[in-house]
Amino acid sequence: MTPLQVSLALVIDGGRFFVQRRDPAARRFPGLWEFPGGKAEPGETPREALLRELREELDWEPAAVAPLPTVTYTYPGLRVVFSVFACAGPGSPATHLGWARLTRAQVAALPMPEANRNLLPLLDRAEQELRKISAGAENWP
Ligand SMILES: Nc1nc2c([nH]c(=O)n2[C@@H]2O[C@H](COP(=O)(O)OP(=O)(O)OP(=O)(O)O)[C@@H](O)[C@H]2O)c(=O)[nH]1
């Protein structure tokens, strides 16, 4: 099974994570909550796919991006490799979907696609990793 490469953003502001609600008419996971992101196109790196999806979905560009460990999850007939990034920056993501900025505990209580249970431990690391790059790197404003 060739895995699907998906890039996801844990967008953090004030200790809260940005989540959006899938279209209730979507074919897969209608009405469930998810992190912004999507499938990589051929030839794209995970980071390029992330930035493109954020631009397309949210009209937003993160000022800081910290890679987190990759998570693999197998749905019936579909293996997905999630490249997860902690993201932060000024400005407000804009989406026509329902959205919210929630604490980790609130995110954990949401109806989400099954794979997202395996992403929850990364929420604890996300802020820590962003702090590291803000301490050392030039990609923080
Ligand atoms: N963006 C996003 N995708 C997720 C999450 N959790 C999860 O299992 N996925 C799955 O990862 C894939 C993301 O691809 P996508 O966002 O480009 O796809 P899509 O839902 O628009 O189209 P699809 O209906 O063909 O799956 C989907 O299969 C989606 O169901 C999540 O939190 N965020």
Automatic annotation (TrEMBL):
SUPFAM superfamilies referenced in this protein's UniProt entry, alphabetically: Nudix
EC number per UniProt: 3.6.1.55
Sequence ranges assigned to domain Nudix hydrolase in this UniProt record: 1-124
A matching Pfam family: NUDIX
Keywords: DNA damage, DNA repair, DNA replication, Hydrolase, Magnesium, Metal-binding, Mutator protein
ATP-binding in keyword set: no
Top EC group: hydrolase
Entry superkingdom: Bacteria
UniProt similarity note: Belongs to the Nudix hydrolase family.
Name the UniProt record assigns to this protein: 8-oxo-dGTP diphosphatase
